[in-house]
Amino acid sequence: MAELKRVYLDNAATSWPKPESVYRAVDEYQRHLGCSPGRSVYRDASRADQTVADARHRVARLWDAEDPQHLIFTFNGSDALNLAIRGALRPGDHAVTTAADHNSVLRPLRFLEDAQGVRVTRVPCDAAGHVRIDAFAQALLPKTRLVAVNHASNVTGTLQDVPRLVEIVRRQAPDALFLVDAAQSLGHLPLSVREWGVDLAAAPGHKGLLGPMGTGVLYIRPGVEERIAPLRLGGTGSQSDEDRQPAILPDKYEPGNHNASGLAGLAAGTAWLEERTPAALRSHELTLIAALLEGLRGIPGLTLYGPDDPLERVGVVSFRLESFDPHELAGLLDLRFGIQVRSGIHCAPRMHAAIGTLELGGTVRISTGPFNTLEDVEYVAAALRELSRAP
Ligand SMILES: Cc1ncc(COP(=O)(O)O)c(C=O)c1O
Questions:
Q1: pTM of the model
Q2: pLDDT (tens digit, 9 = 90+) per residue, 312-370?
Q3: Chain segment 218-261, per-residue pLDDT in tens
Q4: Is the pLDDT of residue 30 over 90?
Q5: 213, 347, 358, 374: which is the annotated catalytic residue?
Q6: Is residue 158 lining ligand 1, measured as CB closer than 6 Å?
């Protein structure tokens, strides 16, 4: 049997392929540089330092952050969210999150609720995955300490109106820190933490930023670091005569050796994005979403979830096909067509509850990346049409 071509449509899990320059940067670091950044004065150590600084500057520029030192490198998106959430909340605090949020937000909050008596209000979403604004406003208390909101759903692709939510929080919960989870949007569309006006923003480096796995970032608005306790402590190569963790950023939150070859790849991925421009990548993504929605609509027995308007979503499209279990369908897409997608609950149980698929075993999710083509999305629509006829 001829080998099937591989059609990767699981970019919401991690992006693949990466730009060639990312593979080259990781290889170059591992093979030729190899040393520890931020520790020594020899020339290669300075080059290693510069590699990490370059990654930091590029991500800061892409995200329009005030100061690159306020971008903290973490090991994935979950790690960044844990730092923000567990660093901000104290026993008895009140926090607000939404049904659109991922377990990387929901589980740290549930843990703090169980272990430290943190009170958590979870705001529902409508059937298209939009946070219910009236319920959001009602959830806020004058003493709320943290509001954690997903920007783009990893189930339905739904984009939330972050500036509008920030405005409501500033009015009703003036002491609250606003954390946005941009795991599915950073790198996919032009974003500005300053225009959003948020305090904290987290993202993986291995999804839209096109870096390797083992990378993530947390933006901390200048001044907000005074309210975020570090979770990991240790050597930084700075103020080494002191046994107290340095207060300066990023050292306060970055003890131990970095994933330096990963960050070399992240710098290359971000450079690639800067060159292509997020606006042009968004336009390509919108073309793919429109074609995908068009191709899937009208397939007998297929139910689509999330907003109808491509402008209200990222390239994450969930659906169910009548008489198929999502895992079975994803397995068939792979076996018969070489199409790689993710099925199930996608670590977002409350969003599945909102769209009515939690009890049904979830959905099948197609998620596009910058290297996907119109041909890919037409191919997946044709494959599903065929399966709908002959299960
Ligand atoms: C919305 C959302 N938040 C957070 C994460 C966690 O990212 P990571 O897998 O890098 O920890 C994901 C990963 O799928 C996600 O989709």
A1: 0.98
A2: 999 999 999 998 999 999 999 999 999 999 999 999 999 999 999 999 999 999 999 99
A3: 999 999 999 999 999 999 999 999 999 999 999 999 999 999 99
A4: yes
A5: 347
A6: no
Work out which ligand 1 atom sits closest to the CA atom of 204. Answer: 10
Please give the pLDDT value at position 1.
60
Pick the CATH number of 20-275 from 3.40.640.10, 3.40.50.720, 3.40.50.300, 3.20.20.10: 3.40.640.10
Query: Is 35 one of the catalytic residues?
Result: no
Average pLDDT over residues 93-107: 98
Mutate which of 14, 149, 207, 351 for ligand 1? The one with the most ligand atoms within 8 Å of its CB, which is: 207
Closest Cα to atom 12 of ligand 1? 183
Burial class of residue 259, CB neighbours in 10 A (0-12, 13-18, 19+): buried
341 Cα to the center of ligand 1, angstroms: 16
Asked whether the domain spanning 20-275 has the same topology as the one spanning 7-18+277-389, the reply is no
The Cα 34–Cα 84 span in angstroms is 30
Q: For ligand 1, say whether the CB of 216 is within 6 Å of any of its atoms.
A: yes
Q: What is the CATH number of domain 7-18+277-389?
A: 3.90.1150.10
Q: Are the CB atoms for 208 and 187 separated by under 8 Å? A: yes
Helices (H), the chain: 20-28, 43-62, 77-88, 103-116, 133-139, 162-172, 193-196, 260-276, 278-296, 326-337, 349-355, 374-389
